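Entry:
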Amino acid sequence: MSAHSSPTGIASDRPMARALSGLSTVPVGHAIDLAFFFPDEAQARPDALIVETRRHLGGCVAAIEMALRLSLEHAPDVAAALDRWPTALAWPMVRAQPSLLGPDLLAHMQMRAGVTLLLRQFGQGDVEQLDEGQGDLIPTTDDPELGDALSALALSEGRWLALAGEDAPMKPDLPAEHFADLLWTVAACLHVVARRTMAEGGDQSLAAFDRSGWALLRDHDEAACPIAQADKLVRRMGERADVPELLGALLGKRHFLFFAAVAARRLRMESRQLVDMLVMGPVAQLASLCRALGGSAADYRILLLALRPVRPQLSDAAIVAEAERYQSVSEDQADVAINALRTSPILRAKLDHLRAVSGT
């Protein structure tokens, strides 16, 4: 990653690097080099996922910057200062200082990117494919009760699938907490530039961005994202979503988010958490998930095959080996694992940290 200059004078010639377990006493620069030359294959990210994550991040940053610029009618001096920089400011600054991005936000963006790769691989987001129902099992867009919800899901998926560069604006249909994180990041970047540009009255800039930021937060609609749209569809289906054969039919048709929303309903989990497990979770979690849903070894193989776009390590040989290991996963073991995932994520994170440092 090359250095990126900005009106703030900020530049960086190193990308962010994952801290390596057991290297806390190693100098930071050396730890970064070790992470590059000896990556943890279990944590490896495919190039397509990295590119797609940057596209989602850059696109949401670009859209938020546009919204903030347009919201500054109440502060004409600040708006005029930014007008002296007509090109995008925030994304180059974030690229130069990626530590502006918090771990939760970055993890969410990776999940979004993974969903996009799965949808793009199988062409979901095309309303015509949603019309290819399976009898009365999978609803179609001409369903009088569910057609509009199906169309809304397809359109929201299409926004994520749109082909564009990482600096092209993308609707920031983020959960409220992540939208707020990214909004204030962009606001901070623009404030720094405006304050340095304004000859006088630079102190007005902070108050102006604070006012505009809160206004954008009040107008934010987190229900516009495709995960929320899939949840809405499944809620409207009611008991139709509980038909045992539905999950297999959805997975066979590669209706990924529809499948995830139905699975989350049956496991009494949040869809966003379940999608994150499918895209980024350990393979052992996938086995527990499939067993808890009553899946056979053949169903598990189909699930792993469907997830290959975001899990390139799942070669044919690896899938065969995982399917053999799946035979040893009992329903009781799966239930224990899924019950643990229903607990507070903060509690689980603290327990994972304690296990990591204690080696147990």
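Confidence is low (pLDDT under 50) at residues 1-6, 8-25, 123-131.
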